[in-house]
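Fill-in record for Rhomboid family intramembrane serine protease.
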Amino acid sequence: MWVLEGLDTVTANALDNYGIEPRKISDLPNILWAPLLHFGWGHLIANSVPFLVLGVVTYLSGPIKWVVTTVISTIISGLTAWLLGPIGTFTAGVSGVIFGYLTYLLVRGIFSRRIGQIVIAVVVLAVYGSVLLGVFPTAAGVSWQAHLGGALGGIIAAWLLHSRERNRKPQQMAY
């Protein structure tokens, strides 16, 4: 993301055109790489720490769960921005994926009923809980649509990856 922002700076923000433009069919593929693009260094810097922290904590669940959560959050975030965003705007940035990681970490313990995951959820909520307000249309120029979609993606990923754990019965010890 940092290399792409450097390239975007050198090319007078030419990469910004590869963000998601709502309801423009030709922009649907942009859903896949829009999270890698940012509208300036401030935007990238603001996203970098939560992306790194929440991404690493999500990765600790295992690389496959991290990939599934990343892909689902990316696609649902992008589709939500594409469907609900204002016409003539562009959406880019990794914040939708950040919201996916956040909600994944918050709800996976509910689906799995594992105390360690619930403790992590409490810590994540204490540190990043206020970020959840970003799913509401409170600030001009901020895609609450992408945030909402990413949050839904994280919940769906947690449900897909951890709901079966809830149905498992503890194994009986044979005597």
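KEY FINDING: Residues 171-175 have pLDDT under 50 and may be disordered.
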